[in-house]
Input
Amino acid sequence: MRKYDAVIFDLDGVICSTDEYHYLAWKELADSLALPFDRQYNNKLRGVSRLESLNLILALGERQYSDEEKQAMAQKKNDTYRRLLEKMSPADVSDDVLSTLNELKRKYPLAIGSSSRNTKFILSRIGLADFFDAVIDGNDISASKPDPEVFLKAADALSQRPSSCLVVEDAAAGIEAAVRGGFDSAGIGDASRLDGAKYHIERLSDLLGIL
Ligand code: B16
Ligand code: MG
Output
């Protein structure tokens, strides 16, 4: 008997990496505000929504901003980020990721559960626009990870219960979201060291030994 009936993947940090582009876009904004933002601090933003990321960056300084000012800053960052995403192509998906996805697709329904509002754009840039059976992203949810909403909606879209799905995540916020939603999870990258994850994997193809 198989352990799971479906797999839900986080996008950024699991299928591809847009970390550097997020960093460069936030860095431009932080520099314009003279805030001491660096790559290490950027790691805190992994899996966290755009507005919450901005709040974490603004917390590096003293000044308070109105909601309108914050919206404008988030928009500016996203414009820079989108321009950087234009550089992405199918070459941004590693051979390990692509072969694992193709292998799993033969046996399981697969979904994306991402906090990013740019998910569909990124999937189209990397050549996976029509690959997944369901895509739930930052545009579909009212509460971002660590709230489990994105994964619950993804399971629902696949007509599965949480206990039947394995979530694959690279961020602490995503592993917490999985736990709170009643999902088992596999942690990769930074999340491979987190206690909340049931499995700890080095590369995506390690999933083939679990599923
Ligand atoms: P956007 P994931 C997350 O994607 C990123 O890890 C996180 O750094 C970003 O702030 C968030 O998406 C929102 O992204 O500004 O594009 O809406 O890891 O959940 O796939
Ligand atoms: Mg991620």
